[in-house]
Design brief:
191 residues, alpha/beta, Rossmann fold, Arc Repressor Mutant, subunit A, 2 domains, five-stranded parallel sheet, 42% helix
Length: 191
């Protein structure tokens, strides 16, 4: 975030009014404003009650508080940044998750990064990335576009696209968010 950019706006839609008030207080103390009435928020903060009937996202990133089930659902619902946190997340974790999701990143607690049952069983030893693929994966985790990654690496944009496709294949994913999430889960990158 640059000095000129505004912090992300957040719409808190939690089932518990008491929890929602506490979360709004934490966010307000960090300079994160609520979305103005009628405006689309940058980040939608939800809990498990929203999972039963998810509302349209209209371009908003999502931060969920509650169950681990979100980590399996949000990649399909939200092509933007998203985060899943346990209900007992610290204020610092919540604030970081809001900023990360607004920046297009994926955030999960380390304890939730264990592969779910039925996963393809990949571990870091099964995935062999070239040094350049590791560089590209790290830049994906920072939320950079192909054009910006190419400029940072001093290569063409088509070269970055080639490496991104190689990452998708090696990691068994179909999206940038999936590549970052799998890279984190396998310990190939940290955010």
């Amino acid at each position: 975030m640059t000095a000129d950019s505004a912090p992300p706006t957040v719409l808190v839609t939690l089932g518990s009014a008491v929890l929602a008030a506490g979360v709004r207080t934490v966010l307000g103390g960090a300079g994160l404003a609520g979305a103005p009435e009628g405006a689309d928020p940058d980040v939608l903060l939800v809990d498990d009650s929203w999972l039963d009937d998810p509302a349209p996202l209209d371009g908003a990133a999502v931060v969920s508080l509650g169950s681990r089930a979100w980590a399996e659902v949000l990649p399909d619902l939200c092509p933007h940044g998203w985060a899943c946190l346990p209900a007992d997340a610290t204020p610092a974790e919540l604030i970081a998750a809001v900023h990360g999701a607004a920046a297009g990143l994926v955030t999960l607690p380390p304890a939730w990064l264990v592969a779910p049952e039925g996963d393809d069983g990949l571990d870091a030893g099964d995935v062999s990335l070239t040094p350049r693929e590791r560089d590209v994966l790290a830049l994906l985790a920072e939320g950079l576009s192909n054009k910006r990654a190419a400029r940072d690496l001093g290569v063409s944009e088509s070269t970055v696209k080639f490496h991104v496709q190689a990452l998708y294949s090696k990691l068994g994913v179909q999206s940038r968010a999936g590549a970052v999430a799998r890279g984190i889960a396998l310990g190939l990158i940290t955010v």
